[in-house]
Design brief:
InterPro entries: EF-G-like_DII, EFG_III/V, G_TR_CS, P-loop_NTPase, PrfC, RF3_C, RF3_dom_3_sf, Small_GTP-bd. The two termini are 27 Å apart. The longest helix is centred in the last third of the chain and has 15 residues. This protein is globular. It has 511 residues and is of the alpha+beta class. It is built from 12 helices and 31 strands.
Length: 511
């Protein structure tokens, strides 16, 4: 177990996350050609952005898994499970669930822009779960803000101790390389493209104008402390340019040396650690139609404990009866391989036909329920109108599939025939329309809904029934059949809460 590193890369859009992902895969041998992550056609075998809308808009809208392994001196072979997360602000829900499945994160910051809103949001999710963070300040080969200004912003905005592990020798037109504090070597730009080609200059002379700031960077900030890092109180900071290969080796080395191996995961009866002998895990993502030719449906399971073997029977908490897992998948970039075994920390894909859902716990004895994978109240609600009314059945199937994945939530009103979809962000609506057409051959339009938000109703059955008697026009059922109050405004929620003190109007629903 100690040789597993399961981590995510978090960033604001355009900070360079996809490029860094590609360079990490390249250094681990998972891909063999720079540009494959962004390539088109047949060469796109190793991409993390594979959906049509992602290709068109150049953003990640799903979370992908990529596994690769590398040898490190003194540590043997380390297996990396890299979970690529949507950087776009409209995908906080899918991203949140992905971050429940990792043990650490790499935060990518653009040297010219510093901390941006999405970075802060994703950081807060990591903080909620005490996920330790390594910071990578990217694009130092371009004009950027002063190094101390960037460090102090990370420290102040995120309330973290920062520990720089190197220093850029100039930025933009004055860029002369990156100094590694641990070795004293400088990675130099080479060739007409001024990228790092592997030449490190040991005991390199430091330009006089930079000597003072390097001394201050080394002496003015806390030394790296692994305990403080793993408890989420300190972030080591690396500098580089993913595009030009600077800092990538230092970063992957830091993940191998310092990032935690599989950590205990919260469950109903107390946290479950990786040393538990029987197999346990939870589904944090479901993805339909990764291969449109086969209409496949993959549930992504984070292994929490035990050694999984192909063909094993596991019991999903939502089902109660065992299922045999005959064709589990490991993801090597965009290639897939059958997994004969998997250990705690690994992510395996389980093909299924709608049996497994986000939030399901799987175990050999059906005695585990992992917690902390909520649904969030949607912030945008729309009615779905079919262009061709004869496709009602296909639409119902598509909406159920996509709600299982967490792309949308679907609500079936108690009164009225038009179904309502709810999303956290606007872009999810574009993804919905795009995928309905591309994957289900259903043309649909989204129309305004009279409702602003939704709340799950919890409380005594009699109180729920009495409330329903007076408010049926504002009630719907979600995909699980649970009662949902469709509110026309936040004031509505407060008013109903006051009138019905024995009921709870909840903005989240634990899966």
């Amino acid at each position: 177990m100690s040789n597993r590193r399961t981590f995510a890369i978090i960033s604001h859009p355009d900070a360079g996350k996809t490029t860094l992902t590609e360079k990490l895969l390249l250094s681990g041998g998972a891909i063999h050609l720079a540009g494959e992550v962004k390539a088109r056609g047949q060469a796109r075998r190793a991409r993390s952005d594979w959906m049509k809308i992602e290709q068109q808009r150049g953003i990640s809208v799903t979370s992908s898994v990529m596994t690769f392994a590398r040898e490190f001196d003194g540590q043997g072979e380390i297996t990396f499970n890299l979970l690529d997360t949507p950087g776009h602000e409209d995908f906080s829900e899918d991203t949140y669930r992905t971050l429940t499945a990792v043990d650490s994160a790499v935060m990518v910051i653009d040297a010219a822009k510093g901390i941006e809103p999405q970075t802060r949001k994703l950081f807060e999710v990591c903080r909620m779960r005490n996920v330790p963070i390594i910071t990578f300040i990217n694009k130092v080969d371009r004009e950027g803000r002063p190094g101390f200004e960037l460090l102090d912003e990370v420290a102040d905005a995120l309330a973290l101790d920062v520990s720089p592990q190197g220093w850029p020798l100039g930025m933009g037109g004055l860029f002369q390389g990156v100094l590694d504090f641990s070795t004293g070597a400088v990675a130099r730009p080479e060739g007409p493209s001024r990228e790092f080609l592997g030449t490190r200059e040991a005991d390199a002379p430091i330009p006089a104008e930079l000597a003072e700031e390097i001394e201050l960077a080394q002496g003015g900030y806390p030394e790296f402390d692994e305990v403080a890092y793993r408890s989420g109180d300190l972030t080591p900071v690396y500098w580089g340019s993913a595009l030009k290969n600077f800092g990538v080796e230092e970063l992957i080395g830091a993940i191998a040396r310092h990032a935690p191996p599989p950590r205990p995961q919260p469950a109903d009866g107390g946290a479950i650690g990786p040393e538990r002998p029987d197999v346990t895990g939870f589904i944090f993502k479901v993805q339909a139609n990764m291969d449109p030719q086969h209409r496949d449906r993959i549930a992504f399971m984070r292994m929490v404990s035990g050694t999984f073997r192909r063909g094993m029977k596991l019991v999903p908490s939502g089902l109660g009866k065992p299922i045999a897992v005959h064709s589990p998948i490991l993801f090597f970039a965009q290639d897939r391989e059958l997994a004969d075994t998997a250990e705690a920390g690994d992510i395996i894909g389980i093909p299924n036909h709608g049996t497994l859902r986000v939030g399901d716990s799987l175990s050999e004895r059906n005695d585990v329920r992992f917690t902390g994978l909520p649904n969030f109240a949607p912030e945008i609600l729309r009615r779905v109108a079919l262009v061709d009314p004869t496709k009602t059945k296909q639409l119902r199937k598509a909406l159920d599939d996509l709600s299982e994945e967490g792309v949308i939530q679907v609500f079936y009103p108690e009164i009225g025939a038009q179904w309502i979809v709810g999303v956290v962000g606007q872009l999810q609506l574009e993804v919905l329309v795009s995928r309905l057409e591309a994957e289900y051959k259903v043309a649909a339009m989204l129309e305004p809904s009279p409702f602003a938000t939704a709340r799950w109703i919890k409380g005594p059955v009699e109180a729920q029934e009495a409330f329903a008697g007076f408010n049926r026009a504002n009630l719907a059922r979600d995909r699980d059949g649970d009662m949902v109050f469709m509110a026309k405004s936040p004031w509505d929620i407060g008013y109903q809460q006051e009138k019905n003190p024995e009921l709870t109007f909840s903005a989240t629903k634990e899966r």
